[in-house]
User: Fold this.
Amino acid sequence: MDRAALTRGLREEALRLGADTVGFAPAVLPEPGPDPAAYQAWVEKGMHGAMGYMARAAEERPYITRWFPPARSVIVCAFSTHDGKPPPPPDPARGRLARYARPADYHRPLKAKVKELLAWYKERVPGGRGKVFVDSSPVLERSYARYAGAGWVGKNSMLLSRKLGSFFLIAGAAIDAELDYDDPVPEHCGTCTRCLDACPTDAFAAPRVLDASRCIAYFTVELRGAPIPEAFREGHGDWLFGCDVCQDVCPWNRFAVRSRLLEPDLPPALDLEEVAALSPEAFAERFKGTSLERTGLQSVVRNALLAMGNSKDPRYRPALERHAAGDDPLLAEQARWSLGLIDSAR
Ligand code: B12
Assistant:
């Protein structure tokens, strides 16, 4: 199969499988671009916080051939996570979930789709090899996605496209054949700084540079077994899992396309009292197969107790007092802090 036919076939197959966008980049870029240096600086400044795995693969991550040496091309697919509805209005009874966390955990379904694409490739190219990545592999996905023309890196560091906005996930594969490559798309943020201005914890060190150690998404999803630092607690508002503030304010997200693949399993916001009262068994049952399951009960309850405090609503006193007197010191400390905030608002 010649290169043009292979490229065309892979594109058609990826779209048939449910990708909203597909693009192709060379595995070894003709010119290095800003990405390896930006990544190195990010790690050296400790912006990865407690995500030790981000620092461990620091030299390898920007170069996909270190992860899969036979790689010649990178196939990048984007899958929308938008349900076509606006964000929920504020409700003191509930804590919000980021959009990507509402469907079933995306790792498995997206990996399955890209594996099907790889199977298509292997059928057409006997002896062809490839390797799938979805989030957790040491691959700098947004960098390859940008070179594959799937979007530009917005000031909020999200990959953004005119077609999809930024509410999409990336999944792809490195393969050992040459393809016809897409051109990167120009940047369309212009003078807009809405995302930088809106971040409640001031997490952007500069446009395109997110200090994860200040980000609500990092605290609520990745920071496990530890308290959320006090300096950032009030900025958290009602986020229970992830955060979409820097995307919700982005004008390009007015054009977000409804997902064809990822239907929400969870509502946009959850009842805080219900979450704070979950037993390990009830948590396992309620959130089985969702992204919340990975983060675990303790973190999700910690986040709910913080959201209760930030609501400053005295209705939460009984739930908070229960945790303040409970035997988990992490949750007890968060509950005491939240009670203090509620008391100070009286
Ligand atoms: C660690 C991680 C996080 C961390 C840190 C995020 C961050 N901004 O670095 C935390 C936990 C905070 C996080 C949060 C979220 N994440 Co996350 N995360 C990752 C992960 C695993 C690695 C990202 C990484 O390498 N960060 C290091 C920084 C330095 O790299 P980078 O942000 O990708 O930026 C590169 C380019 O932008 C490039 N660059 C290009 N041009 C330019 C120009 C200049 C001037 C500069 C300086 C840099 C630059 O520089 C960097 C190096 O290449 C990726 C999956 C993956 N394997 O790549 C998902 C990923 C980035 N996350 C994703 C998502 C969906 C989210 C959230 C939206 C979830 C949520 N709603 O809560 C938030 C968004 C926060 C945000 N504004 O970025 C998606 C993003 C999809 C998209 N449309 O961009 C990814 C790709 C997962 C996936 N497979 O879909 N995430």
Notes: The chain has 16 helices and eleven strands.
